[in-house]
TrEMBL record:
It comes from Flavobacterium lindanitolerans. It comes from the Bacteria. Pfam families: Beta-lactamase (PF00144). Keywords: Signal. Residues 1-20 form the signal peptide. This is CubicO group peptidase (Beta-lactamase class C family). InterPro entries: AmpC-like, Beta-lactam-related, Beta-lactam/transpept-like. Residues 43-327 form the Beta-lactamase-related domain.
Length: 437
């Protein structure tokens, strides 16, 4: 027994030492600082190995107007990562026999279409067919205003159903708002109190809570980038509820991730249910496998905030990213963080500044199209910049990376202008040629 214990400890120490040697924290620091210096990213990263945090780094401002720099205690809205917390709370309630995965929601919400057919599990894995209220055309006009449960139920009921329950799956924020209300009904407590009782307090998550805190001076304000960082309005927490209203930081998120998958919140049977994918959806989880490393987690986006966490169980590693301002595709940042964590090679981008005269920029303006495409792209100039606007979409500010090459890094878009009045659009591995009309 004594030899076995020593052998286990010895192998664990070797694994940790090997990881530490291959993980270059200084290089990852330089990468994140480069993003900050070129107005690409403000936010935080944390990585844990063997249930210990081995890396934290925060860049940018918590509040640009007050010039308050963000630090490792800064708190960010984590958007749909809230759904993972909500799924855990529901499964905890199932373990306590307060509700069943097979319980139909007509008991709670008889006004919802197909309520007698929709189960709690259908809500958890997005197979309910209930439409997402955030897709409604008028959502942007009221999302900053507080809403009661009655008001939200009326909105979700009017949103209607997109398909018969359990016939397919489609992501819907409505599902997790309803789950939040179910938790409040069965526990006879506010969602925030349930979250605190079963997750925050037991795990001692010091920087995690529901909604806005009047007492916390470390909350980050969110921004989007046009020609500079623009302040974003905040969605009222009463609207997304457990679908997107939790605030946290990266250290707490990796701590939550490690505790969850080590069985410290719900039992192993419940964890297996969470991780079981149906039509690519788990219960509050997605498959985030990276190369040959099996990973599972969730991402989030609300207002100007973006976030992601992933647990790599076989590698005993978790990471989390939170942000209050991105002008760069989050997938690119995520892949670099994962590459760094696993000791893979990666390059730090240069973000070269290219000067192009207004006259040269004017030559690119016009409408570009192709007979086989359902949209056109209009290139317009605003002083020393150009923008690209696809049919029916908002204009995207472009950044010059070479004489004839422009990018919109936030969506991974690259436009290359050719001398024969043609333009090459590259995005997500696809390449399309359009001609100037």
């Amino acid at each position: 027994m004594k030899f076995s214990l020593l052998a286990t400890c010895f192998s664990l120490c070797i694994a940790t030492a090997t990881f530490s040697q291959s993980f270059d924290s200084k290089k990852l620091d330089r990468y994140l600082e480069t993003l900050e210096n070129h107005h690409k990213f403000m936010g935080s990263v944390a990585i844990s190995k063997n249930n210990e945090i081995i890396y934290t780094k925060t860049v940018g401002f918590q509040n640009i107007k007050d010039k308050t720099k963000a630090d490792n205690n800064t708190v960010y809205r984590i958007g749909s990562i809230s759904k993972t917390f909500t799924a855990v709370l529901v499964l905890k309630a199932v373990e306590q026999k307060k509700v069943s995965l097979n319980t139909t929601i007509d008991k709670f919400f008889p006004s919802i279409a197909n309520a007698k057919k929709i189960t709690v599990e259908n809500l958890l894995n997005h197979s309910s067919g209930i439409g997402s209220f955030t897709d409604n055309a008028d959502y942007i006009s009221w999302h900053t205003q507080p809403k009661s449960e009655k008001e939200m139920l009326e909105i979700i009921t009017k949103t209607g159903s997109d398909f018969e329950p359990d016939t397919k799956s489609a992501y819907s924020n409505s599902n997790y708002v309803l789950l939040s209300y179910i938790l409040e009904h069965i526990y006879k407590k506010k969602y925030s109190e349930i979250l605190t009782s079963y997750i925050i307090k037991p795990l001692q998550l010091k920087n995690t809570y529901f909604g806005h805190s009047l007492n916390n001076t470390h909350e980050a304000i969110s921004y989007t980038f046009s020609t500079d960082w623009d302040l974003q309005p905040n969605t009222d927490a009463s609207i997304p509820m457990g679908a997107g209203a939790i605030q946290s930081n990266t250290a707490d998120l990796v701590k939550f991730s490690d505790a969850l998958f080590n069985g410290k919140i719900i039992n192993k049977e419940s964890i297996v249910k969470m991780k079981t994918l149906k039509n690519d959806y788990g219960l509050g989880l997605f498959d985030y496998t990276f190369e040959n490393h099996a990973g599972i987690g969730h991402d989030g986006a609300i207002d100007g905030y973006k976030s992601i966490f992933t647990n790599f169980e076989n590698d005993k590693m978790s990471y989390a990213i939170t942000s209050n301002a991105t002008n760069y595709k989050l997938d690119l940042i995520t892949n670099i963080v994962k590459s760094a964590a696993f000791g893979n090679a990666y390059e730090i981008p240069e973000f070269k500044a290219i000067h192009i005269t207004p006259e040269e920029l004017e030559a690119y303006t016009g409408v570009y199209s192709d007979e086989g495409l359902p949209f056109k792209i209009t290139i317009a100039r605003q002083e020393n910049r150009i923008s690209a606007q696809a049919t029916g979409q908002a204009p995207l500010p472009l950044e010059a990376t070479d004489k004839n090459v422009f990018t919109f890094d936030k969506a991974g878009i690259q436009l290359t202008f050719k001398s024969d009045a043609k333009m090459i659009l590259k995005q997500s591995g696809r390449e399309i040629e359009l001609k100037k009309e």
